[in-house]
Amino acid sequence: MGKRGWSIGIDHTQGWGMDKVLLDYGSGGRASHRFVADLFFKYLGNDILARMDDAAVLSLTGPVAMSTDSFVVDPIFFPGGDIGSLAVHGTVNDVAMMGARPLYLTCGFILEEGLPMDDLAKIVASMGQAARDAGVRIVAGDTKVVPRGAADKIFINTTGVGEIMVDPAPSGHRAAVGDVVIVSGSMGDHGLAILSTREGLSFEAPVVSDSASLAGIVGKLLAAVPGVHVLRDPTRGGLATTLNEIAGQSDVGIELTQADIPIHPAVAGGCAVLGLDPLYLANEGKFLCIVPEAKAQAALATITADPLGAGAKVIGRVVSDHPGKVALVTPLGGKRLLGMLEGEQLPRIC
């Protein structure tokens, strides 16, 4: 946090008669404290944050998982979410992928002078609701205001901490030959939703981001199916890049069956028109689960029982061939390698 817990430079429509973020209020003085109370504490407040100390004192037992991420998505509002809820979901999910129960978040805001106050209030409210839904508390924060043109509206950084629930914890290093690869739902929804909104594109069916907290469904999975080897959320770089990372970490090959990979028709159609591959598009509410074959059906049943995993499917296997690489088996029975994403297929998707 900034001095005395939080520093901010904004002007609020309630009682201040202005509707834009102003540079003047970034000094951490009396006006800044009023703004923090009116906005951030209103939506994010809890007993730890309310202490207004220079750091939060937390209670944790045993090993913990910790992750940090920065969010610069453009546009800041999109079908299925906004930068505030996305900032919570993204970090909560990263912590959950380590077999941990997310407990605490910190958040840092970089605000551009002139950001509409209504937009900021919607984002902070959305962030607070996402945190409550995920069962985490935002316990520390900081806000900086930069001059017009020095940033693009709003950037958010979040750091998450959670208690690891299983031993050994899932890891990209634990995929083993004979394991089964499960994906919790359709691929590419978030990436195409961001692109279509940014560029003003429309398709026959609406494309909505899958942004969601996966902490609940992962907790159920770990409780019901001991011995999950790998959990990973395929965000930037999508399914193909994420599986390449796992194959490299574990020094194994992975083979996918193309016909089994779930992709919404609207996403498939949109990607065909735009020349994009949905296997490389970002997801923000889906996860990969790699488990021993003997536990695959139990894992699939647990995942599909939750609404967030209703579209889950077995999509491939871990093999000894081509270690460090991912192969896609086509509907005609041929194979092609799925490499790592080169460059930036779609910038600022999270």
Structure description:
Helices cover 30% and strands 22% of the residues. The chain is of the alpha+beta class and 350 residues long. The chain folds into two domains: 3-164, 2-Layer Sandwich (60s Ribosomal Protein L30, Chain: A), CATH 3.30.1330; 180-338, Phosphoribosyl-aminoimidazole Synthetase, Chain A, domain 2. The strands form three sheets. A seven-stranded mixed β-sheet has the order 8-10-7-11-9-12-13. It has a four-stranded mixed β-sheet with strand order 1-6-4-5, covered by helices on one side. Helix 4 (117-134) links the parallel strand 4 (100-112) and strand 5. Helix 2 packs across helix 4, helix 3 (83-96) packs parallel to helix 4 and helix 6 packs antiparallel against helix 9 (296-304). The radius of gyration is 21 Å and the shape is globular. The chain starts with 12 loop residues before the first helix and ends in a 12-residue tail after the last strand. InterPro entries: HypE, PurM-like_C_dom, PurM-like_C_sf, PurM-like_N, PurM-like_N_sf. Residues 177-326 form the PurM-like C-terminal domain. This is Hydrogenase formation protein HypE. Residues 53-164 form the PurM-like N-terminal domain. Belongs to the HypE family.
